[in-house]
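In pairs, describe these two lines:
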Amino acid sequence: MTKKSFYSSLFINSGRIIFALPFLGFGINHFIKTEKYVFFMPDYIPFPEYLMYFIGIVFILSAINIIINFKARISALVLAGILALLTIIVYLP
């Protein structure tokens, strides 16, 4: 391994971890502070507590997949999709 490829690999791996850690924290917070997150959901959403648990699971699993580099692109797309969907559901109406 050359010095250049070592540093590029180091930056890519550290960037992936830095990107995924906040989502891991958000996912854990969805379980710890469920009431706080349910407050932001509109009234027309059925079973908001279960939705918060589902979103927490998605955040945690996607973050772990990105950190260990297992289907990281698909996990990042899942995160982008769920964030876009939540933005539309919460802020559009």
Observations:
- Helices lie at 3-32, 34-38, 48-68, 72-91.
- The chain is about 80% helix and 0% strand.
- The chain has a mean pLDDT of 91.
- The two ends are 54 Å apart (CA to CA).
